[in-house]
Amino acid sequence: MAAAEAGSAGCKVVLAGTVAKNLLAEVTAGLAKLPAVPLLVGFLANSDPAARMYADWTERTCKENGFRFELREVDREDLEEALIVANNDRNVDGIIVYYPIFNNRQDQYLQQITDLGKDVEGLSHRYIFNLFQNIRFLDEQQTQKSILPCTPLAIIKILEYLRVYNTILPYGNRLFGHSITVVNRSEVVGRPLAALLANDGACVYSVDVTGVQQFTRGQGIKQRRHQVVDKEGWGLKDCVPLSDVVISGVPGESFKFPVELLRDGAVCINFSTEKNFSPEVKEKASIYVPAIGKVTIVMLLRNLVRLVQNQSMNPASPNKPGEPAVLRESSTSSATLA
After folding, report:
1. What is the mean pLDDT of the chain?
2. Whether residue 268 lies in the annotated active site
3. What would you measure as the largest C-alpha separation in the chain, in angstroms?
4. Is pTM, for the whole model, over 0.85?
């Protein structure tokens, strides 16, 4: 596959595989320093084609890059017990569950079943708490870094690759001056992503069917963590023209992003399994990333390496609930969490 496809005269299409290739080098280097090849176990308990495809991608990427992977297909009623067994298996280093399972609050319960030291998806309460509170480390000694959810982290890494992050600015402020619209406010991707981007200095407009919320660290990014303000009466027509980056992840074929609202030269990223942007996006965007799946899989492996590294710092139990957390100073980027 080519590194990039040709867009219109002014638009460059960047493929996820190109970004993933650069990131894999770092993952491979980390793997080489581990005492043993880690085992990632995936649990598939539904018939969702997207979940099956994600599992297949995971297996292929693991095998191609020297990781061990085992897919366990179970009935959804047996998943809780299967997770407990994997938690207690010393041979299992990482666990991923291919959601949705019940597609309700029971899925949130299952996310908390996975052992904190094996949660490669970063969905455990401790990790999510750290993300929103802008906390970097799991321990007072600052040796064990927190884990970020794979899809939001993948988007951050893509923005770094695209040089949207301004490396002249100090860590934690490198999105200062950018306005970003995120169309999706799910608890799994959209809202965590908006928080991460705002914690790194951006003004973020988070959009879903209920309206628009603005995530920022306040005027002059003086706050330690992001604040949220409802933008009454706002819609895409109000925030998209203000945004130099637009990220969309709306599920379903019916949604098509109104590309006529885009600023000329905007950076556009699609993280939905559907094509949220029509081909006309290339007439206005300067950079278009049509999918992020391959980068997400690499972030999964990156998190697996991080978990093993964290465990080696304190083999007994590195991340017990209730241990003191360390607040990240404003000079630390959320992009450095992973």
Report:
1. 91
2. no
3. 57
4. yes
